[in-house]
Design a protein that fits this description.
transferase, 2 strands, 6 helices, two-stranded antiparallel sheet, mainly alpha, lipid biosynthesis, transmembrane helix, lipid metabolism
Length: about 190
């Protein structure tokens, strides 16, 4: 197994670790910035998320630069990304740190796009991530990071940057989903 695939597997394994810590450790454990509710649990999960996000950046760059792109990597990398992002978004919505509506819209978009990609794959077309899909992912990752940090340092000056990024990610998610639908609807609608 090459290094990029090992990094992808490591990212997948970090998802249940982050979820277990988030669910098992009280939110107010080891207060760090009590005025905004930031505690040790969220800092630990933030650290896991930051490392996992960095492995996403790293595995893609290593695979492309060293020509180590594999079928496993093409399959597992997007799954690892969605597991990481969607798990944390659901946990943040569960703890009322993220809008349930935004999380549901982004999760539904992911399911629809995955279905479209599967339909296209059955017809022999492999669809890679588009530019707007990458924008969505970057916005989601920054939004999750700030949500885990309780919008620190922006909360200290009353600026809701985490929520702004979350809704920007939702808008980019829906827009990129529409682009995928327009591009791939022929594979779904051809059998109607």
């Amino acid at each position: 197994m090459n290094l990029p695939n090992k990094l992808t597997l490591m990212r997948i394994l970090m998802v249940p670790a982050a979820a277990i810590i988030y669910l098992a450790v009280p939110a107010d454990w080891a207060p760090v910035v009590p005025s905004i509710g930031l505690g040790g649990r969220d800092l630990i999960v933030f650290a896991i998320f930051a490392i996992a996000s960095f492995t996403d950046f790293l595995d893609g760059n290593i695979a492309r630069s060293r020509n180590l792109i594999t079928s496993f990597g093409k399959f597992a990398d997007p799954i690892a990304d969605k597991l990481l992002v969607n798990t944390l978004l659901i946990l943040l919505a569960w703890s009322h740190q993220a809008s349930v509506a935004a999380v549901l819209l982004m999760t539904a978009r992911d399911l629809i796009v995955d279905g479209l990609r599967m339909s296209a794959a059955k017809s022999g077309e492999v669809v890679s991530a588009g530019w707007w899909g990458k924008v969505k992912t970057v916005l989601q990752m920054f939004a999750i990071a700030l949500l885990l940090l309780h919008n620190w340092p922006f909360a200290l000056i009353g600026l809701p940057v985490a929520q702004i990024l979350l809704w920007a990610a939702c808008a980019a998610s829906l827009y990129s989903g529409w682009i995928y639908f327009e591009k791939l609807k022929k594979y779904v609608l051809e059998t109607m």
